[in-house]
Every structure is written in C-alpha cells, then in structure tokens.
Amino acid sequence: MGACLALGSLASCASCLCGSASCLLSSCCPSTYNSTVSRLAFSFLLLLGTLVSIIMILPGMEEHLKQIPGFCLGGTSIPGIDNKVNCDIIVGYKSVYRMCFAMACFFFLFFIIMIRVRSSKDHRAAIQNGFWFFKFLLLVGITVGAFFIPDGIFNTVWYYFGMVGSFFFIIIQLLLLVDFAHSWNQSWLEKAENGNSKFWFGALLTFTIVFYALTFTIVVLFYVFYTKPDDCTEHKVFISLNFIFCIIVSVVAILPKVQEAQPTSGLLQASFISLYTMYITWSAMSNNPNRQCNPSLLSLVQPITATPPPGPAPTKAPGGTQWWDAQGIVGLTIFLFCTLFASIRSSNNSQVNKLMQTEEGQGLTTDYESAVGDDGVRRAVDNEEEGVTYNYSFFHLSLLLASLYIMMTLTNWYMPDVEYQVMQSTMPAVWVKIISSWFCLLIYFWTLVAPLVCSGRDFS
Questions:
Q1: Residue 84: which residues within 8 A CB-CB, separation 6 or more?
Q2: Where are the beta strands (DSSP E) in 293-407?
Q3: What share of the chain is helix, strand, coil (3-state, %, to 5)?
C-alpha cells in the first residue's frame, strides 16, 4: 500500500515537471514567487552540471571506468564486444570542457529566446517558468553531443572563451557580494534600531574587525610566501596595489558626504570586499608558472627536498594533474554561495540593481493566503504580470558565464599545450584575475560615490 502511495506521489511530481513553476512547487516547497522558483530551478541545472564535472575530474576515475568490462578503449574487454569508449575524453579536463560547453550552449539558447521579455504575459515567459522535464532532456542531449566533439583545436579555443567569460563572472560575483554586504549591514542596523542596539552594533563591529584582521593577515602571508627578495616583482606589485586600493575604498566608505548620501554604507561592506579582493589576488598568484613565486599550500607545511626551477612547469593531464587545490575549493564555495544568493536575492540597493538588471523585489516567501488557490493547493504566486522582477536574458547570461567560470576553476586555469598532452599555468590567467580584482574594486567604489557624482539622479 505504501509503495502504491509513493508511486502516486512520484507520478504527480513527474507531471508537474512538464508544467509551470507554480505546479512544480505546489507540493514540495513553501509558498513563494514564480520568479524565485524559476531561478532556483535553472541554478539547480547548473549545479547538477557542476557536480557531474567534479565527478568526472576526480582522481582515478579513468582507471575505475577501465575496469568496466567492454567499456573503455584499452580497458577490460569481453569476448565478442569491442571497447569503443575513449575514457581519456570522458574524464579529466576534456570532460569538464565538454560538460561546461554544453551548459554554456544551453544557457546561451535561453539568453537568445528571452530577449526583451517584459512580463509573464509574454508567451516566452511560459518557457522560462515551465517545461522543466523537456529542459532537462535538452541539456542532456546537448551534453551527449558535446562529448562527440573531436579534440583538434576545440580545447585551446574553449580555454580562451573560458578566460574571458570567467573575467566577467568574477565581476558579477563581486556585485552579488556587494549586494549581500549591503543587505547584511542594513538588516542588522534595522535590528539595532528596533531592539538590543548594543548587541547588534557589537556584532557589526566584531565581524568588521575579523574581516580586516583576516585581510591584514593574508597580506602579511602573501609577502612572506609569495614574494622573494630578488624575484616575484609582479607579486609585490599586485599585493601592494590591492592593499592600497582596499584602504582607499575603506576610507571612502566612511566619508561624511558618502554617509550622508548612503546612511547604510560602512566598514562592514568595505572589509568584506577587501577580503574578497585578497582572495582574487591569491587566486591570481596561484596561477603564476614561476614555482619559486607560487608555492602550494602543501609545500608551506611540508619541507621541499629540491628547489624547483623557475619558469613554466607543465603537468601531465589528466591523470597526473592535481586539480584540487585550496584556491579552487574556496572558489567553488564562493560560486555556490553567489549562485544561491542570485536565485533568491531581493535587493534594495539601487546601484547594484541597475548593474544586475533587477528590480526591487519581494522576499523569498509570500503570504500563505495569497498562495493558496480555490482548491486549497499551495501554488507559487505569479508576481510578474505587470513586469518581470529580473532580466531573463541577463540571468541566463550570468549562468552562461558561471559555466565558463566553473570550467576554469575545476581545471585550475591550466592551459592545454599544442599536443593536448600536458596542462600548464600561464601568465594570461594571472592577469585576467588581477585585472578583474581592479574592476571589482572600481565597481564597489562607484556604488559608494555614484549618488555624489550623479546628484541629479534618484539613488534612494
């Protein structure tokens, strides 16, 4: 009897996969808005592709596949069955490139389809907010087709696409983090005004001090481990400039005129952005091909028997490459946080909203009464009949760039050589990250001074 009830429930959910977001949500999630559910669903598809990429790049995956009889070329065979699968392609960096290529194509398709959708009354909005089963099948179909792409020049060309896309996604991450910091600061200030002010002001001060302490500690560690007295000039410049820039934006954030124009601006946001800037700086220096200036975290806690020579140090791929390192794990963590936050964000910061192509939206959930239909079933509320709360095309463009960022993060920004036999760090990857950190600080600086520079515009 229990099995029959379970099958009935699964059948009900399966039918919703072909329908709208409101149907998809009605039995499984709390009452919420249609726009939020759609963003969460698309983000789930992105995270699913990311999970598949992580699995395919795990160490030893190729050897495990070769143990499957009759599957991999050069693996265990079954009499009368030819092994036809090239496991060198479906694992390692090549599989990540193809998986992320498929996700990028998927989101690019929706980016094109959703151009100039103004409200849920547009017929294309039904595609955005429904037909999830068919969307999943489409993504699977594109992924299968991507694995038939021959090596050739694809890997090198897609590497450069990944670098450019990741540059822009790092900036989008910064916008989301700025928005999060503003929302965080504003929320705690409101609680301080309405409740125990000493506690909330103390909490704000504590987090601000912790963030600045971490930033200063990281800068000191950078100078100790990522610079040499007679070498690593680029690193000295990167660390010094970004540290100075962080001090500048921190001072600007508490200037009286800035505080007058933006009462919620403060050192919490500046300290948070400073810490993120130091992460990008670390990530950039970790891609320096000069190993004397780029020690791994493992080498910092274990003695090194021999000093590696300066210059590019190619690494065998995919089996011999150590894909997982600390900066990659931190990058994935920040990516997951920003993806979730982008799906449920409801910002009142007008500068960030204009940059992110979003409106001042409602929260994650709505009133229970407004979400219950005449039949008593909870459904997501269509809050976009008069106008969309976020730009559909820009949202898909962000996920497209996120796909490229994931590809570069999982492969440590390594570049395949002309023979596609080794992967190596390159200085262009270093410069892409450093320049993106400067853009991030510039954008944050603009969110502070925009109300003063454009005094004739409404930034309330």
A1: 73
A2: 315-316
A3: 65, 5, 30
Lookup: tokens for 51: 């999970």
Angle value at C-alpha 190, between 185 and 192, nearest 5 degrees: 95
294-347 pLDDT, tens per residue?
775 444 444 444 444 444 444 444 344 445 566 667 777 877 777 777 666 544
Q: Which DSSP helix (H) or strand (E) runs through 424?
A: strand 422-424
Report the alpha-carbon distance of residue 27 to residue 410 in Å, rounded. Answer: 36
Q: Does pLDDT of 206 surpass 80?
A: yes
Residue found under tokens 């760039």 = 401
Q: Please state, in angstroms and rounded to a whole number, the distance separating the CA atoms of residues 344 and 390.
A: 11
8 A C-beta contact, residue 269 and residue 440 = no
315-316 and 415-416 strand pairing: unpaired
Per-residue pLDDT tens over the stretch 153-171? 888 888 889 989 988 888 8
Q: For the chain, what is the total number of helices (H) and then of strands (E)?
A: 19, 3
Closest CA to 216 of 243, 251, 177: 243
Quote the tokens at residue 396.
């898909």
What are the angstrom distances between the C-alpha of 326 and each of 278, 282, 295?
A: 14, 10, 12
CA distance 66 to 72: 5
Task: Output the pTM of the full model.
Answer: 0.74
Token pair 């274990």 in the structure block, residue: 302
Residue 110 identity: F
- Least Cα distance to 407 among 382, 439, 379, 429 occurs for 429
| Opening angle at CA 198, ends 192 and 204, nearest 5 | 70
Going by pLDDT thresholds of 50, 70 and 90, the confidence category of residue 69 is low
Of 406, 416, 384, give the one whose Cα is nearest residue 129. 384
Confidence of residue 103 (pLDDT cuts 50, 70, 90): very high
Question: How many residues in total does the chain contain?
Answer: 460
